[in-house]
Amino acid sequence: MDRRDLLKYMALSPLAAGGLLTGADAQAGELEALPPPATDFLNGRSPEEQDRDAALAQQKFFSEAELKTIGQLAELIIPADDKSGGATEAGVPAFIEFMAKDQPNLQTPLRGGLRWLDNQASKQFGKLFVDCADAQKTALLDQIAYPELAKPEMKPGVSFFNLMRGLTATGYFTTEIGFKYLDYRGNKPNVWDGVPQEVLDKYGLKYDPIYSKK
User: Fold this and answer.
1) Residues 142 and 150 sit within 8 Å (Cβ to Cβ)
2) Distance in angstroms (rounded) separating the CA atoms of residues 168 and 181
3) Termini Cα distance of the chain
4) Can you tell me whether residue 102 is helix, strand or coil?
5) What's the average model confidence in pLDDT over 193-214?
6) Closest-CA residue to 111 (of 169, 77, 63)
7) What pLDDT, on a 0 to 100 scale, did the predictor assign at position 35?
């Protein structure tokens, strides 16, 4: 069962309850005839999706030189700091490699953008982007990182940088490192112990004695 079918069954669940409550035997009979939802999903991925992911993992799109450039560029977009690791530690280059294979429409913009970046680095500094000094890399990226300030001839670079910035942020903030950086806790079971006393005191409120013990 694919994700679309699973969502369909989820949508039917309240209808099934309503049909049983109102005695709509025909509707209940139709719902009972539906096959049970699949239970072999892994991290929300169907078996078919898992097989496809495994097949993509065996393929390789970017060259080692291209991945090195992607890694340096991603690290400049989200560098490591004293709070957390940067984009490369979070595995962003591998994420972008996967996305290029998962969504082939990204391949030409990404590969073309990498070549554009090297061409500009060669024109301005006489070397490939990865061989430039940090100040030179920053100077080049400053020319394409702010669309409203970019010169018309830099528009291809602006489009590429926007794409890389979005992929880098997506790859970074969907990893454990990114979650910790955001202090994202997710949905976790807990125990509701009422409004904190300091909040109640702040607004001059208090629980009825009958509830305080609960």
Assistant:
1) no
2) 15
3) 44
4) helix
5) 82
6) 63
7) 57
pLDDT by residue (tens digit) across 61-78?
A: 999 999 999 999 999 999
| Strand residue runs (E) in 11-108 | none
Cα distance between residue 168 and residue 46, in whole Å: 26
Q: Distance between CA 157 and CA 121 in Å, rounded? A: 12
Q: Are 157 and 70 in contact (CB under 8 A)?
A: no
Q: What are residue 72's phi and psi, to 5 degrees? A: -65, -40
Question: How would residue 44 be classed by pLDDT, with cut points 50, 70 and 90?
Answer: confident
The answer to whether the CB of 167 falls within 8 A of the CB of 174 is: no
Answer whether 154's CB lies under 8 Å from 143's CB.
Answer: yes
Distance CA 92, CA 178 (A): 11
Question: What is the per-residue DSSP string for 166-196?
Answer: HHHHHHHTTSHHHHHHHT---S-------S-
Q: Which residues, 6+ apart, have CB-to-CB distance to 72 below 8 Å? A: 129, 130, 137
Q: Write the CB contacts of 81 (distance below 8 Å, at least 6 apart in sequence).
A: none
pLDDT tens, position by position, 113-167 = 999 999 999 999 999 999 999 999 999 999 999 999 999 999 999 999 999 999 9
Q: Report the 10 Å Cβ neighbour count for 17.
A: 12
Structure-token pair, residue 129? 């982007």
> Helix, strand, or coil here: 45?
strand
